[in-house]
Each structure stands twice: as structure tokens, then as C-alpha cells.
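re the bet — no i am not wrong, look at it urself. input seq straight from the record:
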Amino acid sequence: MPLAGPFLDEAERLGVRRVVLLGSAIVPPDAPGALELAARVRARPGWVVLRPSGFMQNFLRPHPLGALIRRPGEIRTASGDGRLGWIDARDSAADRPRRRSRRPA
């Protein structure tokens, strides 16, 4: 965590209430830095880790994945009947807490 550690230290010092760590759905077991970073972010209230399977933008041109999907008209994965968390990249940075908060009557 040579770069992220000092950043998170400063965020904590300044009282930052919301941090979103965008990670990968696949984290190899030999990547302790990534695992430690995710654990540190999860330990703080309001800080979250997102690990999407992929981004909907990958279906668009000129991304190579988009071409592989458009030709046969299907998405092939190794998940069988399982589900994958494909998200829109814009949603990963959206201000969800503000949208969910209730306003006083």
C-alpha cells in the first residue's frame, strides 16, 4: 500500500466520510497488498469496496469484448447458472448516500 496507505491516512485525518475503493472481482491470494487495502477500507463506517465482474461499457465499441458479444449475440462466462455483477461505470462513482437520505418533513 505504498501509495494508497498515505492517502487513506490523510482521508481519515481529515474526517472524510465516504471512500469507494474500486477493485477487481478477481483478487489473487498472493496479492496481500490488495487484500490489506480492501480490509482497511471496509473497517471504516461509510467506506466501501466495489468489486464488479465487469463494466457495461465493455459491450460498446471499440472494446474487444463488445465485438465478441455482438457477433454471436450472447455473453459467455464460466459462471454457469450463476450471476455476474456487471455495472455501469458511472454508477460506481454515484453519490448513493445522498440519494437515499430522507429529507425532514
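see?? Strands lie at 20-22, 48-50, 54-55, 86-87. told u. also Helices lie at 4-14, 32-42, 64-70, 89-92, 96-100. so pay up
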